[in-house]
Amino acid sequence: MLDDRTTAAPWPAAYPEGYAVVDVETTGLARDDRIISAAVYRLDAHGEVQDHWYTLVNPQRDPGPVWIHGLTSDVLEAAPLFPDIAEEFASRLDGRVLVAHNAVFDWSMIAREYARASLPVPTRQRLCTIALSKELALPLPNHKLESLAAHFGVVQQHAHHALDDARVLAEAFRPSLLAAARGGVRLPLLECRPLTEWSDGPARPRVGYQAPATHGYQPRSWRASRKRPPCPYPNPGRYEPGGLLAQGMRVAFSGDTSVDRDLLEDRAVEAGLHVATSVSRLTSLLVTNDPGAATSKVVKAASFGTPMVDEAAFSHLLRDVAPAPGSPAPSSPAVPPPAAPPAAES
Questions:
Q1: Span 4-197: which CATH code?
Q2: What is the pLDDT of residue 13?
Q3: Which of 10, 188, 212, 343 is most buried (CB neighbours < 10 A)?
Q4: Looking at the whole model, is its pTM more than 0.85?
């Protein structure tokens, strides 16, 4: 086990005093989906595990992609409702930085559950391990949790089980934290803002489940435009379903997304894609969670025969984007991976 005493410089005074490494499994990726299991590993200031906690949660609806998380309606029927575990969950997060892989998603799901229960949010800051790995310039082939785990020699035993995913992330976060401390890297901390735009309205209906009236998130109807630098790669054409995205492809987004839209667009730009604000015959791909919507982008994409994928599929495709011909190879990491553990004592 690496020890923080191996750091070349004193421990950064600005670093947080404690962390809560979190993973939640959910019924889906949309704003009205629900948490069905949650796990928290509490770590001290230097990343040492203090304790862990896990619970199932009855979402009061169908469980969604059982083939991913393995939690059936029968398993969840006797589980507590979120308000029943909200206090314990909050005590695990209180006074700590929430750490998660793709933290904006986990935080959004948690914040919505607390808003539904009319309870205060339990944490004020979050840290995404994807963002931290980028700050450290780790030589990862993609930003999957399994790739981060493999980089630090952490063995994943049960992917998409909240407790094991939280364990894996906790074990990978500690050496990341130590590497950041050694290099004097500023941690990519973001504010956890509570949700306030809620009104009494039914959630999106699910087949086979009669949803009661509940609090549903009401998204804004507008987004401020962001001027982005031009894509340096030529457009290679349309995305071929079942294939890879390629640098230079023109990607447009339509409709609501569970992950913040700006974050999705930033990831696309970082991968070498061109984020388009409209759909034309040159558009390579449209990302939408509702391909049957009557939005102008969806209607145009359908008329042009533009391929469409949902947010989850797009996030998966972003993990392996084909380079443009002649594009430079990835640069060497600015901060090397932690040294091999000493004999006495990731």
A1: 3.30.420.10
A2: 93
A3: 188
A4: no
